Amino acid sequence: MKYLNVLLMFFPLAMIGRYFHYADSPVFVMACLSIVPMAIIIGDATEQVAVYTGPKIGGLLNATMGNVPELFIGFFAVKAGLFGLVLASMAGSIIGNLLLVLGFSVLCGGLVYTSQTFDKSMARSNFSLLCFAAISVVVPLAFKLTNRESLHLNDGLAAISLAMACIMLLIYILGLVFSLVTHRNMFLESDRIDCVEEPDWSLRKAVIVLGIATLAVAVASEMVVATVEKAGRDFGLPETFIGIVIIPIIGNVAEHSSAVLMSIKNKVDISLEIAVGSSMQIAMFVTPVLVLAGYALGKPMLLVYAPFEVVAIITAILLSLYVFQDGKTYWLEGVLLLFCYVLFGVAFFYAEI
Question: DSSP code of 54?
Fold first, then answer.
């Protein structure tokens, strides 16, 4: 993946184009391309930190930092009032991690090994939180569809969105307490298996690189959001498709490469922790934070996904849960996940949300 570092040259070019008010389309493309290597650098730095912390905390950190592009893009989109783009990118990140990233990981690992096994208890904690995330996307939409004639519909949706954001953040924190404190013994065996790897960087170097790359991603994300509307019209791409497919793929490069690499090394536990953990964090951490940020900025965002987005999220959660329920994976299961992602990608290109 080091050859992708050549794309870093687009970062200063995008900044120059933005400063001199060049057309939005080329600035959008250059900003998007520059995020790709920066996301990989973030992934490399967090992998080095993970060697010092162990696979459980390392996987959590990798998933968290892997979501930095989505978090920054979402924040600037909320600030600009592009709520549809925010919700689409959140839905796309969940779908992309569960279908695209996991699909490639299972396929690549399955081509090397006949079958791969993993600790079901590690996957179960994240999938249980994802099941609540499924509830969180269904309840606001169901309320909206069953109370269309209510005079207090928007007030009710605003109250539900704020309450849901607070509850999801609380559950996310409790989930961390469960996996890292009260039931940490459930994951100690996996920690002991993978903690023998030696770091290539010092912890200080990893932290410094992580900070610089994160700052650069924030700048590039602002440029992406500032130019996305005009670029979408120029390229003939619906805003929903950009949010569902393009932005998550750009932001998930780090998770994608890390999860696939771990699967090829037969470390499926870490692949699951990265991909499923990233989806869980998007649903239970990033999305609630963006909802609360909207209220703080005086631009409250209703946590109401479009019906087809809800269908896609629920399908991705259920399909991935079915694939991983037996503690084993095979290459064919990866193909099924990938085909499902392609199907949704085509559908969202033509969907009018």
Answer: -
**Alpha helix segments (H runs only) across 236-252:** 239-241, 247-251
Q: What percent of the chain has pLDDT over 70?
A: 88
Give burial (CB, 10 Å; 0-12/13-18/19+) of 1.
Answer: middle
Rg (C-alpha) for the chain, rounded Å, is 20
Please tell me the predicted confidence (pLDDT) of residue 193.
Answer: 46
CA distance 260 to 114: 16
Q: How many CB atoms lie within 10 A of CB 205?
A: 13
State phi, psi for 329 to the nearest 5 degrees: -135, 150
Cα–Cα nearest to 111, from 222, 233, 266: 266
Give the chain's mean pLDDT. 85
Place of tokens 């990140």: 93
Instruction: Report the distance separating Cα 127 and Cα 137, nearest Å.
Output: 15
Domain 2-350 has CATH 1.20.1420.30: yes
Question: For 198, which DSSP code?
Answer: P
Most distant CA pair in the chain, distance: 62
CB contact set of 160 (below 8 Å; sequence gap of 6+): 139, 140, 143, 303
Q: What is the pTM of this model?
A: 0.85
Count Cβ atoms below 10 Å from residue 203 Cβ, excluding itself.
13
Task: Check pLDDT > 50 for residue 69.
Answer: yes
| Boundaries of every domain in the chain | 2-350
Q: Is 176 exposed, middle or buried (0-12, 13-18, 19+ CB in 10 A)?
A: middle
Which residues are paired to 116 by β-bridges?
329
Report the C-alpha gap between 89 and 83 in whole angstroms.
Answer: 10
On the question of pLDDT at 12 being above 60, the answer is: yes
Per-residue pLDDT tens digits for 105-157 = 999 988 888 888 877 666 666 677 788 888 889 999 999 999 988 888 999 99
Q: Is the pLDDT of residue 52 over 50?
A: yes
